[in-house]
Structure to design on (150 residues):
């Protein structure tokens, strides 16, 4: 399982390459596809950056079981415990949280308090027709502002 790992190392990649490269039945999964975590003064590689390196080495793609994969919500929708028309996906990352909401048929709300929420949204809105699945239905600067929508 590849997830965010602030202690990712060459030694860990060697070990993973050995397991995945010598055993085609070895399950290869990822928690999410976050490319980068942006902070005001710097950026940090996200899980996807680490995952692409490993996928390149082993020539296999990981199964993705976190957002934005709709499979993680499919059973809840099928069982009726989640009704897409009555469910709001709230998140702070367009390319993960908002995409997940759209993939599941949910309404979406982007909260601007994430480290790069507003920056990412502004980039996406530069080409809205190409980025339609990343555009939220609603936006609030902070979760406390949700009362303005109700």
């Amino acid at each position: 399982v590849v997830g965010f790992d602030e202690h990712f190392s060459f030694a860990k990649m060697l070990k993973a390459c050995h397991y995945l490269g010598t055993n085609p039945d070895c399950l290869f999964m990822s928690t999410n596809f976050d490319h980068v975590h942006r902070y005001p003064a710097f950026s940090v590689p996200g899980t996807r950056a680490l995952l692409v390196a490993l996928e390149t080495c082993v020539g296999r793609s990981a199964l993705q079981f976190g957002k934005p994969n709709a499979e993680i919500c499919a059973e809840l929708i099928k069982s009726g415990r989640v009704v897409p028309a009555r469910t709001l996906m709230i998140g702070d990352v367009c390319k993960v949280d908002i995409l997940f909401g759209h993939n599941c048929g949910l309404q979406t709300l982007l909260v601007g308090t994430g480290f790069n929420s507003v920056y990412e949204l502004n980039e996406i809105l530069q080409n809205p027709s190409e980025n339609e699945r990343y555009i939220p239905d609603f936006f609030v600067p902070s979760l406390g502002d949700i009362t303005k929508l109700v």
